[in-house]
Design brief:
The complex is a heterodimer of chains A (323) and B (253).
Chain A (H helix, E strand, L loop, with lengths): L2 H22 L2 H25 L7 H19 L3 H23 L4 H21 L1 H4 L5 E2 L4 E2 L2 E2 L3 H23 L2 H11 L1 H6 L4 H27 L1 E2 L6 H14 L5 H13 L8 H16 L7 H11 L13
Antiparallel strand pairs in A: 1-4, 2-3
Helix pairs in contact in A: 2-7, 2-8, 2-10, 2-11, 2-12, 3-4, 3-5, 3-10, 4-10, 7-10, 8-10, 11-12, 11-13
Chain B lengths: L3 E10 L2 E11 L4 E5 L6 H8 L7 E6 L2 E2 L5 H6 L2 E3 L12 H8 L8 H6 L6 H14 L14 H14 L4 E5 L7 H16 L3 E5 L3 H7 L2 E6 L2 E6 L1 H6 L1 H8 L7
Parallel strand pairs in B: 3-8, 3-9, 6-7, 7-8
Antiparallel strand pairs in B: 1-2, 1-4, 4-5, 9-10
Helix pairs in contact in B: 3-6, 5-6
Classes of the chains: A mainly alpha (323), B alpha/beta (253).
Chain lengths: 323, 253
Amino acid sequence: MPSNARAATVFVAVVALLIALPFVGGDYYIYLFALVFINVILAASLRPSLTCGQLNIGHSAFMCIGAYTSALLAKNLGVPFEVSLLCGALLAAVVGLAIGYPSLRLRGVYFAMVTVAFVEAIRLIASIWVPLTRGNAGLSVPKPSLLGMSLATRTSQYYLALVLMLIVLVILYKLERSRLGLVWKSIGMAENLAQSLGVDIANHKLLAFTLGCFFAGVAGAFYAHFIRFLFPPEFGFLLATNILVYNFVGGRGHFAGPVVGAVFLSLLSEPFRGSPYETIFFSIVMLLTILFLPGGLITLPGKLAGLRRWRPTSGTYAPPASA
Amino acid sequence: MPLLQARSLTRHFGGLAAVSAVDLSVEEGEIVGLIGPNGAGKTTCFNLLSGFLRPTGGTIVFGGEDITGFRPHQVAGRGLVRTFQLTTLFQDMTVRENVLLGMHLHSRQGLRRLLFGRQIFPPDEVTGSDEVLEFTGLAPQADQLAKNLPHGHQRILSIAMALAARPRLLLLDEPVTGMNLEESGHVMALVKTIRDRGTTILLVEHNMKAVMGTCERVVVLNFGLKLAEGTPAEVSTSAAVIEAYLGAGLQHA
């Protein structure tokens, strides 16, 4: 079976399972998987920027902006959920544009340092601007609604998260498989060559970065209305590195990498969620991946298949059949 | 008026003048060679012309437009495209994808195509890439990854990518480095054909045989200064040039 058809089959099967989940799993699983979907959006939305070779260690800042914008609009002005989600995502994108424009000209580690500083700045603003955000006392948020209907049950919120995640993934996948995606990839591979062929690398990086900020804003807005309580320290540096770790552990060579990484790590770290062990767990997984699977989890099936082909039978080496 | 005219082009790195007050002009339809000993400032010159370095002095006029201080993609957009000395390719992409990315300047894509298009590249771009691959002889390897090509083919691919951008002036930085006699002969023949099809060429090369056999005019740099200029025959008999390459002592020997 060609790899595209196989990927499509896997995708449809997974979506079918996820649609069926609320009928088989209890409330706990519904809640857990909705959180996983948020992480998947966050991880996938970092990918365009990583593809361009930009190390963004501050992605959670844009989730934070989306979350607070959407929460405050809904709470203080009674703005419907879908509108507040869009506003949150747009503000995250605008702030991303403003931060990205000057700093994307910096290379490598300097850009990464700007993003680290930025995520701390946003977290501090959320903590200190008490009249607006209630600071570290936390902000309670109304339930989500859709087209005027309140989505009060966890099941309905789960489906909302699923649909949001699928929309974001389809858009990002389409972009990655377009000419634009190839240009992003080319910038990540050889920036000077891309420039010499007429690619405006600054604008392309900015587009990739801003787009990522937009979708992080979407994730934040949904998160706010799902958890219904915002607490600034949750959006700090730690979450930002987790998003990055999803990408590296899942694998950067394929679109499914960050998705696999986010699902794998979110589910596996669930027993430690919110405890200091979570960080230790993430570090260990990250180290093991770098040591034993530098291409990420996404390369694991290929490696296993390779092992199976190498060992067998007559002792004569048969070249692997091309996939 | 020349296609490319650089006037008193200068670039300092701290106290070092890598290129100082070099005048360089290239007429439409020429093949011009830029030669000189190691460290003479040839590649710095290329970096200045293609926008990868900003000159600290002087002006660059291309096609009647002052392009001094333009950024690389803007220079490429005007039709001045370069290749690199170290083989620079999109290694993990196929040969065809490399060439298609070379056509970046000439592709127009709306959001609709990006999100709903069935193919990544419109048919006319694929046809265009086929033509370039055919012309450079890379068609049989079109679907291989660039990193799996042999060295000579990789060098040719980098020329093919630059060609795909349909330049008016092509800057080739050591196109035959590391090639054997047969390969370099093939590439220099290719360079002549490219010129005959209407692209002006300025090239840096250490392989003297290739330079002397191909270029109509040669500019010699030494220590960042222009040392000599003329036909290959004039330059290769110039005392100053021989001294720069072989050292002064040889004349007395």
